[in-house]
Write a structure and sequence with these properties.
Keywords: Membrane, Transmembrane, Transmembrane helix. The radius of gyration is 35 Å and the shape is rod-shaped. It is built from 3 helices and no strands. The protein has 2 domains: about 50 residues; about 45 residues. The termini are far apart. It is mostly helical and about 100 residues long.
Length: about 100
């Protein structure tokens, strides 16, 4: 609407120049399209992601939990290796007896 108000008075000035009229109309259409897309997309993005800071904190705590879980996993793997060695020793002693 705003561009129409601006371009309507200018159009009669450039009525004999078809290229200039075409450029004005094209610019008005492109600008209005971008404006309407912005009015639709920007609020939609804000509504979908209202608390980005909270998500960042959550991802940081998840990474800390992941580190703790990784340490626990490595500890369990080491313990499993020790238990396997003990089992093979016991089986070896059983086979000897």
């Amino acid at each position: 609407m705003v561009l129409y108000v601006i371009s309507a008075p200018i159009r009669p000035i450039f009525s004999d120049q078809e290229n200039t009229t075409f450029e004005l109309v094209s610019l008005a259409i492109v600008f209005c399209s971008f404006l309407s897309m912005g009015l639709i997309i920007i609020p939609e993005g804000i509504l979908q992601h209202p608390q980005r800071d909270g998500q960042m904190v959550k991802s940081l705590t998840d990474s800390l939990v992941s580190c703790k879980e990784e340490e626990r996993h490595q500890k369990n793997l080491n313990e499993n290796e020790q238990l396997k060695k003990q089992i093979t020793e016991i089986e070896g002693k059983r086979d000897e007896a």
